[in-house]
Amino acid sequence: xxxxxxxxxxxxxxxxxxxxxxxxxxxxxxxxxxxxxxxxxxxxxxxxxxxxxxxxxxxxxxxxxxxxxxxxxxxxxxxxxxxxxxxxxxxxxxxxxxxxxxxxxxxxxxxxxxxxxxxxxxxxxxxxxxxxxxxxxxxxxxxxxxxxxxxxxxxxxxxxxxxxxxxxxxxxxxxxxxxxxxxxxxxxxxxxxxxxxxxxxxxxxxxxxxxxxxxxxxxxxxxxxxxxxxxxxxxxxxxxxxxxxxxxxxxxxxxxxxxxxxxxxxxxxxxxxxxxxxxxxxxxxxxxxxxxxxxxxxxxxxxxxxxxxxxxxxxxxxxxxxxxxxxxxxxxxxx
Length: 335
Description:
Elements: H1 2-14, E1 18-22, E2 26-28, E3 32-40, E4 47-54, E5 69-73, E6 76-77, E7 79-85, E8 94-100, H2 108-122, E9 129-135, E10 139-146, H3 149-157, H4 167-178, E11 186-192, H5 205-214, E12 219-224, H6 230-238, E13 243-247, H7 253-264, E14 268-273, E15 282-289, E16 292-299, E17 306-310, E18 324-328
Parallel strand pairs: 8-9, 8-11, 11-12, 12-13
Antiparallel strand pairs: 1-13, 2-3, 3-4, 4-14, 5-6, 5-15, 7-14, 9-10, 15-16, 17-18
Helix pairs in contact: 2-3, 2-7, 4-5, 5-6
């Protein structure tokens, strides 16, 4: 009870200072917020949903079971195979920490960001893995994924400010690193105090968004100060089912990062069997739990046989010709 009270106080102190650019969850009666933060189709026909459930004070709702959830796909109720909680079931997560180290972050902002990142690590659990990226005029993978958080701490301490802001390349690189995570529960936490500055990125603005969206990698984006590009940060978060926060001052970053670490570790993993055809069609999923509703969309894998024919004459022929027919069948062909 004491821990829950302390967390409530943290949220109540922290969030009045924030400007919420994007709030992805749907709410019911202003009491419960439900987010479908990721959808994994890799084990099709089973679908895995990553769901966050928070109360009026943004505190994660604990102890929910499969009986508390109802899931519909395209309006039809589907079978729930299992419901797990990341914390209660000791399920590891993977996080890419991305820190803007451009010259405008020199001094207090970067030192506060480094301290906040260290505190973020304090809130993780054994088995969680973290990668560290920093960026200015270029993007660097300072530390690839590791469960040795002391190694990540040492890497954070080496960050220094300088250069401009290759923001688009940073978001793309973060999504690329996250796509290679060892856990299906993977996230990016990106902090920047600016926008794409100097036109140094080799990737366009949409590249990181598209890669993260296709790989179901939510971005939790922190914009620091008043020189950020709120539209880009909002799109980066919204289109990847994450959240975007604009924060006026750097001195409260530690509290924010602590909240994010707790938030990411209190998701529910809901596995469903929607009985869908593997035809590449797009579907809408809705999760109802504890008086709240969250929605998301996903595309079923296209696993039907695909055929091509090469060498087929366009005109009538008078002698034999060779025609090559090729069939690609991910699931194999029947007799």
